Every structure is written in C-alpha cells, then in structure tokens.
Amino acid sequence: MTYTLRDAVEFGRAQLAGGVSPDIDVQMLLCHVMQCSATRLHTFPEAEMTSQQWQQFLQLIAARKQGRPIAHLTGTRGFWTLDLAVNESTLIPRADTELLVSLALSKLQPGMRAVDLGTGSGAIALALAAERPDVYMLATDFSWPALQLAQLNAARHQISNVAFLQMSWLGGFKPRQFDLIVSNPPYIEAADPHLLQGDVRFEPLSALISGADGLNDIRQIVAQARICLKPGGWLLVEHGFDQSERVQTVFADAGFENISAHQDLGGQDRAVMGQLTL
Predict the structure, then answer these.
(1) Residue 85's closest CA among 117, 33, 137, 122?
(2) Dist CA 140 CA 49 (whole Å)
(3) pLDDT value of residue 206
(4) Which residues pair with 188 in a beta bridge?
(5) Beta strands, E only, 86-239
(6) DSSP of 101-144, one letter per residue?
(7) 70/202 Cα distance (integer angstroms)
(8) Is 1 strand, coil or helix?
(9) Angle at 217 between CA 216 and CA 219, to 5 degrees
(10) What percentage of the chain's residues is helix, strand, coil (to nearest 5)?
(11) CA dist., res. 224 & res. 205, Å (int)
C-alpha cells in the first residue's frame, strides 16, 4: 500500500490532536522526513512517500505524541539567522532569547571583547559573531558535551571569531576583561511545576533550575561581572517572566547603573541590562 503526503498530514493531525500545535508539528516532522519545504506539502498533497519515509514519519509522530521536543526529533532549531544542531545536552534555543542578541548588538562596537556565559548550543555567541566579525567573542559552558555541540555549530556555519572555554560563569577570568557579558542562565525555581510540562521535561535540569527562587546563578553572574567588566561595560541576562524587578535589584545592589528591563515577543519581561560605570 502506498501513502501520500495528504495521508501523512491527516494521520499526524489525528495522532497529535489535543496537543499545543498539532498542525505545525506535523508540518515540521513531515518536511524533515521528505527534506522539503512546507510549500511542497500544500502544492503536491498527492505526492507518494516511500515505505521508508512513511515508517520514519510514523516513528517521529509516535515520539512526538509521547512529548519529545520537535527540535530533538529533527536535530535542528532555527535561531536568529542560523540553523543550529541541537541535542539533549543543552537547552533548545528559543525565539524569545533572540532579544538578548538584539540588545547586545545595540552595544557592541568594533574591537570589543564579549563573552556568552552558559553558551549551550552556542546560539547567542554564534549569532553575535556572525553579525559582528569585528568583535572578539568567547563562549563558555561547564558542560563539555554542550561545548562540543557549540563548536560543531560554529564549524557548520564557518564562524571563526569565537573561542570556546569550559568553565563555570566568570570564575576563571582576570578582572576587567570584557566590554560586554551576556547570558541566558538557569532561572527556574526548583519547585516550579512547569518543570513537569512541555519540552523542558527533556532538557538538562542543570540548565534550568537555580535554587529556591531561581536567582542563584544570576546573583553569581552579576557579582562576578562587576569584577570582570571594563568600566563602561554592559551585562545582559535573560530571566523568568516574573523576575524582572528582583533581577534589577540584584544589578543595583552590585553597583550597576543605567539598568533597563526589556520584553520578549509576547510582551513579557524577559531581560535586564545594566552598565558598570566605575
């Protein structure tokens, strides 16, 4: 028996009915299997699939039905202008984090030295390096598998102005090293019920949880950034939707000035930026 793209779409929708985004999920998985654009699915719905393609699609739909993230099933996720390889060793890059890239680009100047802390897949560091080849970019992570993935993504996009280091936050750097520090650190409370929902169930807890109030790592980064930033340097961090005021207080208590809050695509507080003016 032969199956068409239309059969696959109808089967996938039925299997994933009740999910958050069944139509989008089916489209992404089917495009991955067929190595085609979404336009082809709509233009040639009667195109036949091989037996191997159909079986692969069935396996992916079954895995998605169990909750596995689309990015883990396809092995890629788009971020900024890059198509990044992803796996279970890091967080899946999210569109809201592109806010940090926009903010950092507004401050970077030729010859500056910047670092992305907890780089994971390398999303932030590589997006910045691709946009600003005249900036010296460092990317750190305590996870060696994460750094390997980030290096793979750098090679994949032929981005050469990034160096990768295995370390925890800024503990290994000398004072006054950087013009800009950016990070999407863990910021979820240990008891947050969202940890049992959605894609985060399949992501490393070490990249998600940060103490009872979710701010342990941000406090450490801010304290270390005060030492490692050059005078006039900037610190940018992502945080939870209800943490903005507390994060701004952490910045202010550490002596940062020109502190500002910024919203994500959904209008939620998502990032704080501050300047070391000493």
Answers:
(1) 122
(2) 43
(3) 67
(4) 209
(5) 113-117, 136-141, 162-166, 178-183, 229-238
(6) HHHHHTT--TT-EEEEES-TTTHHHHHHHHH-TTSEEEEEES-H
(7) 11
(8) coil
(9) 70
(10) 45, 20, 35
(11) 23
Tell me the average pLDDT across 104-126. 97
List, for residues 211-238, the tens digit of each pLDDT value: 778 899 999 999 999 999 999 999 999 9
First-to-last alpha carbon distance for the chain, in angstroms, is: 73
Burial of residue 193 (number of CB atoms within 10 Å: 0-12, 13-18, 19+): exposed
Closest to 101 (Cα-Cα) out of 77, 122, 86: 122
The residue to which tokens 């800009």 are assigned:
180
Taking the CA atoms of 143, 86, 186 and 235 in sequence, report the sign of the dihedral they define.
positive
Q: How many CB atoms neighbour CB 126 within 10 A?
A: 29
**CA 204 remoteness from chain centre:** 13
Rounded percentage of the chain residues whose pLDDT exceeds 70? 93
Cα distance between residue 32 and residue 86, in whole Å = 14
3-state secondary structure of 180: strand
How many percent of the chain have pLDDT more than 90? 77
Give the tokens for residue 64. 């998605």
